Amino acid sequence: MFGVGPFIAATVTGEAGAVSRFAGRDNFASYNGTAPVEVSSGRRKVCRLSLRGNRRLNHAAHMTAVTRVRYPHSQGRAYYDKKIAEGKTAKEALRALNRQVSDAFYKHLKADAARAKGPGGQAGNDSPASAAGSHPKTPALRPGHSRTKTDPTPRRPQRNNRTSQAPLDTKRSRSERLAAARRSPVEVRRSA
């Protein structure tokens, strides 16, 4: 799409979220603030800029429209010139181009959603893992920063006292401890 670079594409994709939330292009335009707001009085019919909607999406649409107007060979410039020829002011023509850009965003988001049908965003991927290879039970970050529930680590089984060694005595010298280790377990218990 002319006038859309990687930053604007990422902004539109991230801010719009799932395009299935919107019933149509009019709802999407209302969400991003490019739908016209009528402020008519009497015989005077005027539409003004909407101050509602997602401002980041609105900014992305505006930057795309300005880029299209800047290049004389683009379809956006032809549309802008057509609106000027119809008698609209420069701001009204840019507002109309913003709405056209919003409709193009919606069309491309719908096409992308139709292409990516798998759970990981890849067509034909039937695994529960996403395209990045993560798994829902494995946290992406440290366990303290994740909301996923992980299985608690299993505790080591308790050893039987008869098979375990005597507790380490740090008050004795190394030679006394080695001599005690050479004795049988019964003798160790008696001397302790």
TrEMBL record:
Domain Transposase IS116/IS110/IS902 C-terminal: 1-80
Region spans: Disordered: 115-192
Pfam family, one: Transposase_20
InterPro entries given in the database record: Transpos_IS110, Transposase_20
MF-aspect GO terms: DNA binding; transposase activity
Compositionally biased tracts (Basic and acidic residues): 169-192
Single GO biological process annotation from the record: DNA transposition
Coiled coil: none
Listed name of the protein: IS110 family transposase
Organism whose genome encodes this protein: Trebonia kvetii
